[in-house]
Amino acid sequence: MRLNQTVRDVTDRIIARSAKPRAAYLDRMRAAKGKGPARAHLSCSGQAHAYAATGEDQMPLAEGTAGHLGIVTAYNDMLSAHQPFETYPQRIRDAVRRVGGTAQVAGGVPAMCDGVTQGEAGMELSLFSRDTIAMATGIALSHNVFDATVYLGVCDKIVPGLVIGAQVFGHLPAVFLPAGPMTSGISNDDKAKVRQKFAAGEIGRDELLKSEMAAYHGPGTCTFYGTANTNQMLMEFMGLHLPGSSFVNPGTDMRAALTEEGARRALALSALGNDYTPVCDILDERAYVNGIVGLMTTGGSTNLLIHLIAMARAGGIILDWQDFSELSDVVPLLARVYPNGLADVNHFHAAGGLGYVIGQLLNSGHLHPDTRTVAGSGLESYTAEPFLSDEGLVWKPGAAESLNDKIIRPASAPFQPTGGLARLSGNLGTGVMKISAVAPEHRMVEAPARVFHDQDEVKAAFKAGELDKGDMIIVVRFQGPKANGMPELHSMTPFLGIMQGRGQKVALVTDGRMSGASGKIPSAIHVVPEALDGGPIAKLRDGDMVRVDALTGTLEVRAEGFDDREPVLADLSAYQHGTGREMFALFRNAVTSADTGATVFSTLIGD
């Protein structure tokens, strides 16, 4: 199938835009490859330190006869998505020993849960945790004793941070090993209804807790299609997972087999063999375009509009929101997974999953088929599905048809002809909206603004009955990366849903973020320039007429003398201390804008 012309044009534009930084990056990777691991060149004392605790692997390491695999892990047992990683290192060590290799845990990286910190001070560290994870990855691999790497991470900032770190060590092969989603609990729709009842004061906290515990009930990723599961989709579309491995539940024989094969595959891709495939060669401009196409066709998390830009820049590739917007205009929406539908990711996987979606997009010309992957071939191999046989793990052709057209549809009959995200711009700046779950009749709202400087102010106004009547645009500003780390504002979703449900036309405008689970409320988020930078959002006043229009891509205000107003200032002292925030002042002072990845690593690309 011929490649879609817009996909081709956007890819060519990214390649041209990135030519200089990409060439410089690849030169660095070639130089690093030429030097190779320092294992054989370490002093005897250095080698003794590196191998002292490796037991039976000590002599193979000292003799330099085995390929050596570095494990970077985000394990902790407070987060359900990462708890399964507790047993992965030993399984990986055993698997590579059987093929003559060795493995060590190179280091751990932090992993925090946005679900735990929603509406709390800790959420202000969430976005910055991504770059912290990247730094921790750098420290883990700085000993330079590894021939290949595997990365154990799942959730919101963890995978993007690991990808950034992996690209800094891009001369090494990298395989990402997921933990998989927890088994399905109560439906996401039922969970959302209980949250709205609690927000309306109709039920008590005991009933709310019972509902939440029934939804989040075991090891694995949360089953809705938020940022964590969008990350897993991306790793498959971009060729860093084994085919069909993203949504296999923890604790199963299949999950164990995929983990072991992924470890062996990482060593097979090292420079010691005949199939050397460093991650810098996998994550090229085409792979990032494939990732954006995957984001659009599945209605994935808006957080990736920030993360993909930061991830790409670590490899010398410059993306911008216009790339996302143009691809969204031509990529069909093929999946409806909560919050874009009633199904969860387990239902999605059973209905044909990523293999079916990738096959449809390859056939329709929306994906680059010839990218390099850890599977050792192009993206066509990602239409296959893993099975266990007497001979071990094998891949067979995946579903040729959707097994549930309420969850997945073919490219010839999509849920909608365009993707799940829209770019908005106008005299209020530039922002983005996740439209895949927003009903068409709610995609344009024009109403008076009600302006707040904090989500807690919005909650208080709702509880006081100040938001009970009339259409309105809720504006929450001074929530950008420089102001307070750009927290998600998902805790406002239940009462915004109540307002919409009782007939009010309501929308959100903010320089902050919404959760990957954001859905039915039209939300212009990530607005740049942010209020702290004097962006137009800082000039808004209560009663200004604001238009949020995903149909035309418009974000504008109609108010006399608006351009001549001075931007307001806000007291941000409450964001400076407590719950670790004082340690991240350096990040707040150095972070770039949301449309350039909200990253402190601007020097990676020479900004």
User: Please, how many helices?
Assistant: 22
Main sheet specs: 8 strands, mixed
Helical percentage: 25-40%
Total domain modules? 2
The number of E-state strands comes to 14
Mean pLDDT: 93
Structure commentary:
This protein has 607 residues and is of the alpha/beta class. It folds into two domains: 5-35 and 66-183 and 218-397, no CATH class; 421-575, 3-Layer(bba) Sandwich (Glucose Oxidase, domain 1), CATH 3.50.30.80. It is 36% helix and 13% strand. It contains 22 helices and 14 strands. It has helices at residues 5-17, 19-35, 44-51, 58-63, 88-97, 114-117, 126-141, 158-168, 188-199, 205-215, 227-237, 253-268, 279-282, 285-298, 304-314, 321-330, 345-350, 353-363, 455-463, 481-484, 493-501, 585-590; strands spanning 68-73, 102-108, 148-152, 174-176, 384-389, 392-397, 421-426, 429-434, 444-452, 472-476, 506-510, 523-528, 545-549, 554-558. The strands form three sheets. The chain has an eight-stranded mixed β-sheet. A four-stranded parallel β-sheet has the order 2-1-3-4. The chain has a two-stranded antiparallel sheet with strand order 5-6. Strand 7 (421-426) and strand 8 form a beta hairpin. Helix 9 packs across helix 21. The longest helix is centred in the first third of the chain and has 17 residues, at 19-35. The radius of gyration is 24 Å and the shape is globular. The mean pLDDT is 93.
